[in-house]
TrEMBL record:
This protein's name: ABC transporter ATP-binding protein
Taxonomic lineage from the root: Bacteria, Pseudomonadati, Pseudomonadota, Alphaproteobacteria, Hyphomicrobiales
Superkingdom of this protein's organism: Bacteria
InterPro entries on file: AAA+_ATPase (IPR003593), ABC_transporter-like_ATP-bd (IPR003439), ABC_transporter-like_CS (IPR017871), ABC_Transporter_VariousFunc (IPR051782), P-loop_NTPase (IPR027417)
Source species of the chain: Bradyrhizobium lablabi
Record domain ABC transporter: where: 5-231
Length: 303
């Protein structure tokens, strides 16, 4: 499997502050990864290291096979980056701003202007950025990050200030890039947004990578229970409840059961399928919020 970003045994200190501690992971093409953690967990430091803005104290980082902190980092033109707090020259228009960044990437400005329409800024393209709202500046930042169809896209809190409609458009754009083989990494606190979109999750805490994997892998690793709730016709009875015994919460018409894994869930569903009194089944697997809290608590207890 091709690896576009490789982080191996990386440490980074800011004087007495240990920002990163022995962090290792790989990012691959055609996958959207989520980097999650509290403020100060090391997320932005990791992104700065991948961009070559700072150097690690120990370990190795490779982006598109190159060291981003080296003098010659030609792969930089294949990167797109959106910082958490975008800042542009207020005297320039949106079009002039995008033209400036296009020239830095050696892209014809006229080829970049379509991005202004894509992020909803076509009508404001020739207005000065100083008149833009926070959400509009965020849109402009997204447009510059998308210049040149980047092969690696690093986004730090990218949906801050975006309305729901543009947020949906934003993820549609990311899906197109991912499907075209780009590597996408989103650092965000919006775990509910990422739950159904991220194919790979990296959980940071106090500079350490405490867990990583798909949601299915993280759920299996956490061993957090799956909640299965049944609605029963006619109030149910003991005979009807045999196939769903062991509930943690019950009423005459509703029974809730906790199972420890996917196998237990499937066994329970097969048994319920043979019970004519079961009218409806609801399944609630541990959310990304649940998993995040679990792995942070586990690490802090072990420390």
């Amino acid at each position: 499997m091709t690896v576009t970003v490789s982080v191996s045994g990386v440490d980074k200190n800011y004087r007495k502050v240990r920002a990163l501690r022995d962090v290792s992971f790989d990012l691959i093409p055609g996958r959207l990864s989520a980097l999650v953690g509290h403020n100060g967990a090391g997320k932005t430091t990791l992104i700065k290291l991948m961009l070559g803005l700072i150097r690690s104290d120990r370990g190795a980082i490779r982006v598109m096979g190159q060291d981003p902190a080296a003098g010659e980092f030609s792969a930089r033109r294949l990167l797109g980056y959106l910082p958490e707090n975008v800042a542009f020259n207020a005297a320039l228009t949106g079009r002039e701003t995008l033209t400036f960044y296009a020239r830095l990437k050696q892209i014809k400005p006229s080829k970049a202007w379509a991005l202004l329409d894509r992020v909803g800024l076509a009508d404001a393209a020739d207005r000065r950025v100083g008149t833009y709202s926070k959400g509009m500046r965020q849109r402009l930042g997204l447009a510059q990050a998308l210049l040149g169809q980047p092969r690696v896209l690093l986004l730090d809190e990218p949906t801050t200030g975006l309305d729901p409609a543009l947020r949906q458009t934003f993820y549609e754009i990311l899906n197109e890039l991912r499907d075209d083989g780009a590597t996408v990494l989103i650092s965000s606190h919006a775990l509910n947004e990422l739950e159904d979109r991220a194919e790979h999750v990296l959980i940071m805490n106090q500079g350490r990578l405490v867990a990583q994997g798909t949601l299915t892998e993280l759920r299996s690793l956490s061993q957090l229970p799956i909640r299965v709730t049944f609605d029963l016709a006619g109030g149910g009875n003991d005979e009807a409840a045999v196939s769903i015994a062991g509930e943690i919460n019950s009423s005459p018409c509703r029974r809730t059961v906790l199972v420890s894994d996917e196998k237990g869930k499937m066994d329970l569903l097969r048994a319920a399928a043979n019970d004519p009194r079961v009218e409806n089944i609801e399944i609630a697997a541990p959310t990304l919020d649940d998993l995040y809290a679990h792995f942070l608590n586990t690490q802090e207890k072990a420390a």
